[in-house]
From TrEMBL:
Signal peptide: none
Pfam families: SutA-RBD
Lineage: Bacteria, Pseudomonadati, Pseudomonadota, Gammaproteobacteria, Oceanospirillales
Organism: Endozoicomonas elysicola
InterPro entries registered for this protein in UniProt: SutA_RBD
Name by which UniProt lists this protein: Transcriptional regulator SutA RNAP-binding domain-containing protein
Amino acid composition bias (Basic and acidic residues), ranges on this chain: 1-19
Residues covered by region (Disordered): 1-20, 42-64
């Protein structure tokens, strides 16, 4: 299976067994990642990808 998301598998085909296979596949990938020197880092829940941006000073700069 190329993509493990639910969009790749129609709802009618999702079963407990298919989810177990996906979970086993994911566990195997994680195991291989860790064996090859990979490291899993826990990220705090309050961390975002985009830091807050400074407000732009363009408010009211258009002529009347």
């Amino acid at each position: 299976m190329g993509f493990l998301g639910s969009r790749d598998e129609p709802a009618e085909e999702r079963t407990v067994e298919s989810r177990k296979k996906l979970r086993a596949s994911l566990d195997a990938q994680i195991e291989a990642f860790l064996k090859n020197g990979g490291e899993i880092e826990e990220v705090q829940s309050n961390i975002t990808a985009d830091p807050p941006k400074k407000p732009s000073g363009e408010y009211g700069n258009r002529p009347i």
